[in-house]
Specification:
212 residues, mainly alpha, two-stranded antiparallel sheet, elongated, single chain, 2 domains, two-stranded antiparallel ribbon
Length: 212
């Protein structure tokens, strides 16, 4: 194939290193040609890459911030703040056994309504928290009853022979009952050991001021 100089257009031999007409170097011409055609493409590719990467990086940062904020809010809500040092040691020692009633279902009404409970700040703390836990227990019971209405009926020839609650519903009911029991045990331990601590999530409900 004939070879031509890119500077002056003169025809050259295939193995020529210099143009016989203008003296331009053949290797330099090929390098300049390569740079001329390569650099714009590379610049465009880098610009496109930055154009696609920058929005993704911004979205990733926003998602990470949301996850971190959610984790901080959950940790703050489940934090079991300790208020024991706000109560007199004699009050704690004398009323910690009586305060256990605050976490035994409807028996929480005894320390909450009694004169002894009203006269003891330590008992009042647990009685108030126990009332909110009682409301949560009632809510769990209602939810379990409503879930129990979800039943599968087995029929043969149009006749219902028996019905049953599906196992996923039973699992949910069991988990709710276990959580309710765990809260009750945790509250009893706190009251019996002389600790005035918030129960996770439930303790935050005291800020509502429904029970005083």
């Amino acid at each position: 194939m004939a070879k031509f100089c890119t500077k002056c257009g003169a025809q050259m031999a295939d193995d020529a290193q210099f143009c016989p007409a203008c003296g331009a170097k053949v290797e330099q011409q090929s390098q300049n040609t390569q740079q001329t055609y390569t650099d714009p493409n590379q610049g465009a590719q880098q610009q496109d890459q930055q154009t696609w990467q920058q929005p993704n990086q911004g979205q990733q940062q926003t998602w990470d911030q949301k996850v971190n904020q959610g984790a901080q809010n959950f940790a703050k809500a489940t934090q079991m703040n300790d208020y024991t040092n706000r109560f007199h040691p004699n009050d704690i020692a004398y009323n910690k056994g009586f305060s256990v009633l605050s976490y035994l279902g409807f028996l929480a009404l005894i320390p909450f309504l009694s004169q002894r409970g009203k006269g003891s700040p330590y008992t009042r703390f647990h009685a108030t928290q126990g009332m909110y836990l009682l409301l949560c227990d009632i809510a769990v019971t209602i939810v379990n009853l409503l879930l129990g209405l979800i039943q599968v009926r087995e029929t043969y020839f149009g006749v219902t022979l028996y019905s049953y609650v599906p196992w996923p519903i039973r699992v949910i009911q069991a988990l709710l009952s276990i959580v309710s029991l765990a809260y009750m045990v945790l509250g009893i331990v706190f009251a019996a050991t002389g600790q005035a601590r918030d129960l996770p999530l439930v303790g935050k409900l005291r800020k509502l001021g429904w029970f005083k």
